[in-house]
């Protein structure tokens, strides 16, 4: 077609600043609530958010930064961090959220690789920052996010956020530019070697925000009060700082305190209806509620991702009147790829069948496509039985890592590193990471399925399943358990009871060959179990002979 007929619609770029402009115009009095490092609760409106974001943009402009310069953050979820999200990206700079839970060497590598020129940080990370400053000489300014009167003294040159923006007018026009320009940068620790950067565009972020708010996705609206427990340094809090303002919802930020009591009290005090976080956080909330015989007053929906939600946790939330929305995604997907929701014809299925569907990772959000392939990259059927490597593509899926010389794609698809199956109705279920899969006698065993069963045992706080070498079957599953502290029976009795618990729930040959106990299962900086450490720790474990 040489002369296509073009549509006659307005051509305006999809920019992150548009979200804030719209929210400030149409939801100006909507509240943003933050639990601060200062110890109090801070409240202001979306209109005030826009003014302060513009002040920040002006202050950064006076530093002479070029468009696309990276601005780093080491910060918890709060209103100042939100101002950085919009003030930095809206002005054409790149917001680079850094995970402070990583090892110092990794943080130094990330800052240097990203070439951050300014870094904003919460005062709780000051000792870390004082170690970083001499190791990161290219950073021009380090700015502390706290009231000036409460800022800790330092022998190093550290500026204050409130002082930095104080003399700006806020009379600033958000610039217009190509929607494909970079907006934010997140590094993933889920890859081998050094962390790798996923560089998002304004276009990809806006499209992801639209999609994540859809009814069959997170189902967000202006009627919601949203508490993002997932940190803003973890894949942009799963996009919630954008999608919540896009729909005009009230936002509540928890700050640094993510223990069960603090989260529960905030949920109740602010009448939160929707939240999001990893299973380890919610385990703490549930434990606090059970110990104190508490209930929820307004909390209705929670999205759980980052790792598989144990069915026992899902059932507990349902007993509290909370709908659990299981989701799957990756840093490379901005991050949402699939969400577990029922279809209309699923209503005719039994309750047990519906629960099994909701325990899967779900159906793709429009914009994402997916397939499973075998070792030769041949497409496998979506029959709910075939297992294969999961590949995805879409407008908010990574093309290549930041500064990488080659594309991350294979034939236009991104290899996720997950092993999954997809049923005829499009429901996808992760059965393992490709590096965690257990191959026993040439057959796959899902470590996630074994962990989900173990998590339902009353003696188990947390369980990880890893492979260990076996002379006959190549590999066999070993269950590593963090048991409940108050138990008085012997480890051997606990082990026998856990292994018996598997009977009738999975194929007999899947049952772990042994159970070992640890004081604490090691977690990554994003709350996932560190199976690599466990495999190293138990690589010489001798399985019992049967």
Task: Count every beta strand, where a strand is a DSSP E run of 2 or more residues.
Answer: 25
The biggest beta sheet is recorded as:
9 strands, mixed
| Spatial strand sequence of the major β-sheet | 2-1-11-10-12-13-14-15-16
What is the annotated CATH architecture of the largest domain?
Answer: 3-Layer(aba) Sandwich
Write down the overall mean pLDDT.
94
Low-confidence stretches: none
Query: Percent of residues in beta strands?
Result: 15-25%
The domain tally reads 2
Helix content: 25-40%
Radius of gyration from the alpha-carbon trace, in angstroms: 24 Å
Summarize the structure.
By secondary structure, the chain is α/β, with parallel strands linked by helices.
Q: Topology, pairings included?
A:
Blueprint: H1 16-26, E1 31-35, E2 41-45, H2 46-61, E3 70-74, H3 79-90, E4 94-97, H4 104-114, E5 116-121, H5 126-132, E6 141-144, E7 159-160, H6 161-166, E8 182-188, E9 196-201, H7 202-213, E10 225-228, H8 235-238, H9 240-247, E11 250-253, H10 260-269, E12 274-277, H11 279-292, E13 301-304, H12 311-319, E14 323-329, E15 336-339, H13 351-358, E16 363-364, E17 369-373, E18 388-393, E19 414-422, E20 428-433, E21 438-440, E22 443-445, H14 447-455, E23 460-470, E24 474-483, H15 491-501, E25 514-517, H16 531-537
Parallel strand pairs: 1-11, 3-4, 3-5, 4-8, 5-6, 6-7, 10-11, 10-12, 12-13, 13-14, 24-25
Antiparallel strand pairs: 1-2, 8-9, 14-15, 15-16, 17-18, 18-19, 19-20, 21-22, 23-24
């Amino acid at each position: 077609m040489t002369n296509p007929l073009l549509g006659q619609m307005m051509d305006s770029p999809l920019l992150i600043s548009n979200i804030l402009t719209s929210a400030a115009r149409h939801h100006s009095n909507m509240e943003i609530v933050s639990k601060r490092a200062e110890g109090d609760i801070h409240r202001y409106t979306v209109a005030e958010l826009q003014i302060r974001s513009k002040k920040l943009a002006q202050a950064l402009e006076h530093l002479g930064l070029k468009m696309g310069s990276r601005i780093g953050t080491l910060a918890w979820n709060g209103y100042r961090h939100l101002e950085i999200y919009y003030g930095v990206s809206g002005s054409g700079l790149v917001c680079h959220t850094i995970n402070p839970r990583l090892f110092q060497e990794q943080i130094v590598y990330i800052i240097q690789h990203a070439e951050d020129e300014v870094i904003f940080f919460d005062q709780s990370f000051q000792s870390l920052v004082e170690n970083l400053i001499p190791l990161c000489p290219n950073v021009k300014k380090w700015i502390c996010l706290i009231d000036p009167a409460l800022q800790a003294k330092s022998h190093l040159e550290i500026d204050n956020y409130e002082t930095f923006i104080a003399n700006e007018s806020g009379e600033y026009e958000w610039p217009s530019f190509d929607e494909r320009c970079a907006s934010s940068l997140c590094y993933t620790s889920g890859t081998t070697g050094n962390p790798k950067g996923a560089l998002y565009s304004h276009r990809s972020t806006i499209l992801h925000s639209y999609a994540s708010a859809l009814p069959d996705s997170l189902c967000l609206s202006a009627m919601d009060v949203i508490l993002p427990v997932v940190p803003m340094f973890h894949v942009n809090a799963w996009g919630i700082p954008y999608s919540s303002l896009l729909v005009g919802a009230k936002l509540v930020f928890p700050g640094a305190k993510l223990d069960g009591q603090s989260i529960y009290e905030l949920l109740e005090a602010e009448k939160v209806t929707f939240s999001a976080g990893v299973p380890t956080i919610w385990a703490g909330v549930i434990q606090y509620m059970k110990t104190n015989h508490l209930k929820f007053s307004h909390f209705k929906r929670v999205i759980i991702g980052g790792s598989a939600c144990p069915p026992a946790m899902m059932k507990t939330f349902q007993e509290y009147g909370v709908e659990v929305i299981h989701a799957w995604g990756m840093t490379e997907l901005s991050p949402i790829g699939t969400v577990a929701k029922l279809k209309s014809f699923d209503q005719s299925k039994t309750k047990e069948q519906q629960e099994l569907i909701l325990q899967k990772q779900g159906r793709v959000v429009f914009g994402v496509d997916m397939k499973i392939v075998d070792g030769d990259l041949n497409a496998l059927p979506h029959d709910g039985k075939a297992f294969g490597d999961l590949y995805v593509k879409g407008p908010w899926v990574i093309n290549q890592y930041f500064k990488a010389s080659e594309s991350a794609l294979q034939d236009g698809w991104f290899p996720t590193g997950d092993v999954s199956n997809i049923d005829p109705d499009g429901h996808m279920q992760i059965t393992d990471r490709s590096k965690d899969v257990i191959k026993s006698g040439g057959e796959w065993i899902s470590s996630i399925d074994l962990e989900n069963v173990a998590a339902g045992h009353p003696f188990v706080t947390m369980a990880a399943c890893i492979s260990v070498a076996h002379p006959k079957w190549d590999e066999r599953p070993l269950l590593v358990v963090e048991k409940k502290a108050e138990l008085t029976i012997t480890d051997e009795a606990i082990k026998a009871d856990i292994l018996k618990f598997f009977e009738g729930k999975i194929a007999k040959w899947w049952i772990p060959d042994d159970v070992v106990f640890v004081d604490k299962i090691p977690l990554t900086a994003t709350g996932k179990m560190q199976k690599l450490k466990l495999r190293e720790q138990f690589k010489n474990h001798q399985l019992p002979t049967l």
